[in-house]
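Box 3.1. Reading complex inputs
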Amino acid sequence: MNRPDLTASIEGIGFWADGLPSWPAACAFAAAGALPESAPARPSPQLLAPNERRRAPDTVALALEVALAACTAAGRDPAALPSVFASTHGDLGITDYMCATLAGEPRAISPTRFHNSVHNAAAGYWTIGAGCHAPSTAISSFDASFAQGLLEALVQLATGAEAVLLAAYDGHATGPLAAVSSSSGLLGAALVLARAPRPGTPRLRATLVDAAAPPPRGPLAARLLGNAMAPMLPLFQALASGHDLVFLHAGPSRTLRVEIADA
Amino acid sequence: MPPLAIRAYTATTALGTGRDAQAAALRARRGGLRQNDFGAAAPDGRLDTWIGRVDGLETLPLPARWAQWECRNNRLAWLALQQDRILDAVAALRERHGAGRVAIVLGTSTSSIGATEEAYARLGGNGGGEAPDEKLFPVDLRRPCVHTPHSLGGFVQAATGLHGPCITVATACSSSAKVFAQAARLVHAGIVDAALVGGVDTLCGSVLYGFASLGLVSATPCRPFDVARDGLSLGEAGGFAVLERASPGNATPQLRGYGESSDAHHMSTPHPEGLGARIAMQQALQRADVAAGKVGYLNLHGTATPANDAIEARAVAALFPDTLHASSTKGWTGHTLGAAGIVESVFALIALEDGLLPGTLNSAAADPACGPQVRFDNAERPLRYAMNNSFGFGGNNCSLLFEAGA
């Protein structure tokens, strides 16, 4: 039972970052440094009704955008997938709002912003928007949040799920909190992972090992290192540039070693 | 699913410190709620509500070696960890399997946001020789590890020296029920052999004023399932359980099943037919291969909000026979949010081990919408299976099924 392998097919990928508003855009940048001529300042997740799309917190818009893109790429119905949402900090902008309001006029707290302050806000809006009754979770493991989210998704496959959605994201810190919990810009990515191999999709094999992961390198990391979800970038850099081995920070002196085999 | 043995378990709530304090208060029907006396009063006074506060945390700083983790939430985590031989059980697991083969999976809703709130209340007020700057945290609170949800998991990892996967689950009020499910998956997939699970949430401005802004907080001690219930009482708590792959003839209680679901309905209102709740309970029973009629006690989510209780009671009535003893214990502890899952799992384990089936405190006139399963009086009898429901914002539901030891 030591060091069991966890495997999955990557059926779909979603990606969104400032200036790189899709997975194809991220691939083009990772390979050749090409940036799209224009990019929206904020995702506009089609899963939400237009009024909700505008009102949703940045992190919710980001998570839903990449999650839907991954499902679309995989040809999977969002309503059918269990989901894992991983975020280091949740929505730092809402934390700043809550703490500033509590320090000044606590009875003025907005009920909507309060229920949007829960770490599982994106998971909640996702399941509501998708009409999904499958299990959904929301986790943090500080700078190991992506690796632990990926591990949980793979473990769900190993214990019976046929396919699972993983979405990882962090947003922009604002106010006094930004000097302590730093994170800049919007960065999110999602994977639809499936147990069974599917022709034409990369296959991933992960093992948890005792080691420190090297810091993220490559064009994506160079551009997006200021965001708290940057520790996930080695996987997306590898997927974009066809590399077959990456190491993801999974906690103090722990690394998730991920091999990628092309279909 | 293969069962998991529960080697040790504990809870610390407004009822007191450790398992036996919980059992004694449940048996004596002695509640822990008090009139809100938490934190500094705002200029227009404190919120008019009742709270389940843990006494003495103000005088129990963390040991100096963990000073960077200092905050109310981690103090409560440390207090709870020291009860009921949890640390001994963790040490035994480390010995048996190795530190890297034991996971930490903990639930919370707001973690140590109380420390962030405090920093905002004292901005620039303690510059340590610097010129006052109203945009800067006071020096003593410039500790990134507490201003983030994983403060809880990170602290417990430091305090236990465990080296397996360490995750903080934050799905609001289902958080520390879902930790059992995630830990079970990690064991069943062979990633670890055992896990320390639990949850901690502490009172803070965010939840007191946040729930008040939604109109969900009562001005009286909460009355779950009472026809006149008008909202919840907030509480704080910490609890832990030590889980390990069960061996045949296991004498300790066991986790037998879990069910997780999503309402897909609304961020802060439950599904009108309790669909998600029903799916979670059904899946927990199916995973255990136990018939609903065999469950002897069900600890309900039972927050005492008008919507939750009516819907939950309907979902229970649709699944279980009239003979089930189901109750909400939130009249004793208040709603401990991200800690509710572990606290009420501990109450279910007390029911299994002591034959003590709590009723529902503070409630007098049952809502006619409730089925005969919802009980206000305590009962005492041996039982084999007990279940716990925990439902959270975002329509996030989890049910757990436990079995008494052989």
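In summary: The longest helix of chain A spans residues 58-74.
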